[in-house]
């Protein structure tokens, strides 16, 4: 407990300005704004084709602005609820809450094993995580499948989906192997190529990261960059009339606000965060 607040709640919602883990330090080295932007894009599928895939199947009478508000609110609410459920367990058993992607695959299993009824809670958690991942994977698989199928003039959709899915599965297995602890129980040596390989060790912002950590960190850059070009396309290439009709804005006032945001605010803000965290901070550190 910190003051009058549980430690897990303080870690999740508390604001710390000073110190190595404080907000000011995170802003100075670019880590806070880069990870926050990357997480926002990743969480709701922006920049990865996920929203485009779902949007392609919307009925003409469905309101995209209303659906966007619902998705944003629901995503935030579920994320906060998950944090409130997970971090108290992590602190209760004395594990590292800042483990990143390894929190789910290494830290949480240890946390579940140390709590009463942990096997049941752990089983339920990973079953839910599986269904969350598989449903998102289906949507992610649709975009490359549709692209290849279009280039092949509509032939072999099943074969294309199986091929791309198999490639993704193999990459997933490599990611899982990269999370096997190098030192096992009782000090056993479990080191192998995957859990010792740092694929981008020469790049300062990815130094020392194993495969899964590297891919997770790289999405903090790749997704915002893709989002930047999407905003530029939607704001500067697509005509105002086409955009208004396609999105379904009923009010000129809200459409004009969206138009300003998508043309000026979003591209400039995304570019500023990416350039600062990926280019300027490493140059200053070097």
Structure description:
- The radius of gyration is 21 Å and the shape is globular.
- 71% of the residues lie in helices and 0% in strands.
- The protein has 286 residues and is an all-alpha fold.
- The model has no long low-confidence stretch (mean pLDDT 83).
- Helix 1 packs antiparallel against helix 5, helix 4 (50-56) crosses helix 7 (118-151) and helix 10 crosses helix 12.
Give a quick rundown of the structure.
Helices cover 71% and strands 0% of the residues. It has helices spanning 7-13, 23-28, 31-44, 50-56, 64-92, 102-113, 118-151, 157-178, 193-196, 211-237, 240-247, 252-285.
Q: What class would the helix/strand composition place it in?
A: mainly alpha
Helix content: over 70%
How many whole angstroms does the radius of gyration measure?
21 Å
Spans where pLDDT lies below 50 across 5 or more residues: none
| Tally of alpha and pi helices | 12
Q: What is the mean pLDDT?
A: 83
Order of helices and strands: HHHHHHHHHHHH
What fraction strand?
under 5%
Q: How far do the termini sit from each other?
A: 39 Å
- Secondary structure: number of strands: 0
Largest sheet: none
**CA-based shape:** globular
């Amino acid at each position: 407990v910190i003051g009058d607040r549980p430690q897990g709640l303080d870690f999740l919602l508390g604001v710390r300005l000073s110190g190595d883990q404080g907000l000011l330090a995170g802003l100075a080295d670019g880590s806070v704004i880069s990870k926050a932007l990357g997480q926002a894009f990743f969480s709701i599928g922006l920049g990865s084709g996920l929203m485009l895939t779902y949007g392609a199947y919307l009925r003409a009478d469905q309101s995209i602005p209303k659906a966007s508000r619902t998705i944003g609110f629901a995503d935030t609410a579920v994320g906060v609820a998950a944090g409130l459920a997970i971090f108290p367990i992590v602190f209760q058993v004395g594990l590292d809450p800042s483990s990143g992607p390894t929190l789910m695959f290494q830290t949480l299993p240890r946390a579940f094993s140390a709590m009463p009824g942990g096997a049941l809670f752990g089983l339920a958690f990973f079953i839910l995580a599986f269904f969350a991942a598989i449903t998102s994977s289906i949507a992610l698989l649709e975009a490359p499948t549709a692209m290849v199928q279009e280039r092949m003039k509509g032939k072999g959709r099943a074969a294309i989906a199986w091929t791309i899915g198999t490639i993704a599965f193999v990459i997933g297995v490599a990611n899982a192997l990269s999370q096997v602890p190098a030192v096992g129980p009782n000090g056993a040596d479990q080191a192998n190529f995957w859990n010792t390989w740092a694929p981008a060790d020469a790049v300062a912002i990815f130094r020392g990261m194993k495969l899964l950590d590297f891919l997770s960190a790289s999405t903090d850059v790749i997704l915002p960059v893709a989002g930047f070009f999407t905003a530029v396309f939607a704001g500067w290439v697509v005509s105002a009339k086409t955009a208004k009709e396609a999105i379904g804005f009923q009010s000129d006032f809200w459409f004009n606000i969206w138009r300003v945001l998508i043309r000026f605010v979003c591209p400039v803000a995304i570019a500023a965060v990416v350039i600062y965290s990926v280019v300027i901070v490493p140059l200053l550190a070097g």
